[in-house]
Amino acid sequence: MLTSAAGERMASRATITRTFLWLAVLVGGPLVGAKLFDLLVLAGAWSANPPQSLAMMPYGKAWPVDTGAFFIPFSAAMLIAGFGALTAGWTTPWRYRWLLCIPSLGILLLLVLTVVSFWPMNAALFYHGMGSSKDTITDAQSIEMARRWVALDWVRVAGATAAFVAGLRALTLPWPTEVVAKDGIIVRVILLIALAGVAGFVIWFVANL
């Protein structure tokens, strides 16, 4: 039986978790839609016939708005919402908690993939397409790189979709009423280290935009 105080704490955690899940769902839907548009329309155009088509990449003076102006804040909001829901709902049983892990860890991994793979490819393809003195690749390499960019972008679409669906599923399920055992000190230390690592990555990411 739950005491009155314990019941109030559980209700408070449920409210906070669901608030973050609502944010994740409201942000995740447009994020997935925009990512599909970016891949099928924008990337479909500039990757159609490299190197000539690279002039259509959505960067530089020809494009008054960088696509990052949309994706960066929406991804940041999704990351905050995901980790907010995971932190608030950490004491739920794993049959529910695993759904909270996907939006948070999924978006984090996609951001890491963006930094490690997409940022270097974006720069290399853009410089090659505009004939910059910073160009470091050949025409043949630009063709192969554009194909790899599109293939990897499907991974981002799949990951963003999984994060959205998992958040939506967690939001529509009944809130678990079971009282789970408190995590041991080792698990809590690992969680704190992980959260510190996420905070460090976010700070580095923002500083390098």
Give your account of this protein's structure.
The protein has helices spanning 4-46, 68-88, 94-129, 139-172, 185-207. α2 runs antiparallel to α3 and α3 (94-129) runs antiparallel to α4. The protein contains five helices and no strands. The termini are far apart. It is elongated and about 70 Å long. It has one domain (4-207). It is an all-alpha fold and 209 residues long.
Query: How many strand segments?
Result: 0
Determine the fraction of residues in helical runs and give it as a percent range.
Answer: over 70%
How much is the average pLDDT?
87
Name the shape in a single word: elongated
Note the total helix count.
5
Could you describe the largest sheet, including whether it forms a barrel? Answer: none
Which quaternary structure do these chains form? Answer: single chain
Low-confidence stretches: none
What is the total domain count? 1
Give the end-to-end Cα distance, rounded to a whole number of Å: 51 Å
Task: Briefly note the structural class of the backbone.
Answer: mainly alpha
